[in-house]
């Protein structure tokens, strides 16, 4: 089959790391394992420059029609002055919201060659392979009311509201259990049922989904604060970790620091499975547009290329092609290939292009 991929390189280092994806796609086409029709379009600051807004309706329509979307990064100092509603990040938020991308998958993998770059000791992180599944379109970031009001004495009162429904928790729980079935078969669910009603419901619904559909999977409940501690104390105890929007934001950043550089971390944002058995999906590196190194061939393309591997795996079920790409990243690192962000003393530093070519060759 030929799949339609929409490439949204975006701003700053976005186009540079996306070029790395195209290098790897060309190598993949030669293997005969995966063929893609690609189309590129603008998002973020580059779209503001061209159309006056960070995501045009035409681009959104293309995103809706594509089999999957790969996005580089958006934003940068050039657009600091634009109105809040049309800032570059608003384009990305609209894409996530309008496509209903409720499940954010963030792997934290420690490559053996980079274990010494972790915030933790080598023996704690060597072989680490965690998948954090974060709920992305609900919870306290979206719940109403959300406001700051002024009290009679002139001081203020701020309100954010944590809201979750059974349906929202069920669908993210399914994503986590399905993933665990293809991995080690273990899920940890993090909430705070001891102090939050949303935590009580979260635990109840995850427990029910598990009992009804996933007898073969091991489920453990962990309080979110304890989970943060365990991630630093003994991270390899976790495989799939499912949690809400707020706790997921924090816990995935903690997990990220176990693995080395921001330039290494891919992510996937998935929507619901539709009647045809397909789902909307957007793949992007965790990092931003890195204006400090943009345009200098210094960016690490591994997070972006790893996002392509996730796309092959989760959107198209091309496990063999995905393993090939992941394996090529591991092999390139094992062979000593380093961009500046992951270079140790004395290692030879490659630019963005050379790193992508090394991975493509592997
Ligand atoms: P950033 O992730 O762009 O950069 C943070 C630091 O990490 C910088 O020193 C940068 O050089 C380095 N870095 C990031 N990616 C790298 C890579 N692939 N290789 C080597 N080094 C890398 O975060 P920052 O500086 O807070 O934000 C810069 C801009 O990016 C802002 O406009 C921000 O709003 C935007 N941003 C966009 C995101 C997205 O598109 N999803 C996510 C985060 C930030
Ligand atoms: Mg965050």
Automatic annotation (TrEMBL):
PROSITE patterns xrefs: IDH_IMDH
Protein name listed in UniProt: 3-isopropylmalate dehydrogenase
Entry annotated with the keyword Metal-binding: yes
Site residues, Important for catalysis: 141, 192
Cofactor: Mn(2+); Mg(2+)
Species assigned in the record: Methylobacterium cerastii
Family: Belongs to the isocitrate and isopropylmalate dehydrogenases family. LeuB type 1 subfamily.
Documented EC number(s): 1.1.1.85
């Amino acid at each position: 089959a030929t799949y339609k991929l929409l490439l949204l390189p975006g701003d700053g280092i976005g186009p540079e790391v996306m070029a790395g994806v195209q290098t790897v796609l060309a190598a993949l086409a030669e293997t005969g394992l995966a063929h893609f029709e690609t189309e590129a379009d603008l998002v973020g600051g580059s779209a503001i420059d061209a159309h006056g807004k960070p995501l045009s309706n035409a681009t959104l329509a293309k995103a809706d029609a594509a089999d999957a979307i790969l996005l580089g990064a958006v934003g940068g100092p050039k657009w600091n002055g634009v109105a809040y509603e049309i800032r570059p990040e608003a384009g990305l938020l609209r894409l996530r919201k309008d496509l209903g991308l409720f499940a954010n998958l963030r792997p934290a993998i420690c490559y053996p060659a980079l274990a010494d770059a972790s915030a933790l000791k080598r023996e704690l992180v060597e072989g680490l392979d965690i998948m954090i599944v974060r709920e992305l379109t609900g919870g306290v970031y979206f719940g109403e009311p959300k406001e700051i009001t002024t009290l009679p004495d002139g001081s203020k009162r701020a309100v954010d509201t944590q809201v979750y429904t059974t349906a929202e928790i069920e669908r993210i729980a399914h994503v986590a259990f399905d993933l665990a079935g293809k991995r080690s078969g273990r899920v940890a669910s993090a909430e705070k049922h001891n102090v939050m009603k949303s935590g009580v419901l979260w635990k109840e619904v995850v427990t029910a989904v598990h009992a009804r559909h996933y007898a073969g999977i091991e489920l453990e409940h962990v309080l979110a604060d304890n989970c943060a501690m365990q991630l630093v104390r003994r991270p390899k105890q976790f495989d799939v970790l499912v949690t809400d929007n707020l706790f997921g934001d924090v816990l995935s950043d903690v997990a990220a620091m176990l693995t080395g550089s921001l330039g290494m971390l891919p992510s996937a944002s998935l929507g619901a499975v539709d009647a045809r058995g397909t789902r909307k999906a957007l793949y992007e590196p965790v990092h931003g547009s890195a204006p400090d190194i943009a345009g200098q061939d210094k960016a690490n393309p591994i997070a972006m290329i790893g996002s392509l591997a996730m796309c092959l795996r989760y959107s198209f079920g091309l496990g063999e092609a995905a393993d090939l790409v992941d394996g090529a990243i591991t092999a390139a690192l094992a062979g000593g290939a380093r961009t500046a962000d992951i270079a140790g003393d004395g290692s030879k530093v490659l630019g963005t292009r050379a790193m992508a070519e090394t991975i493509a060759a592997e």
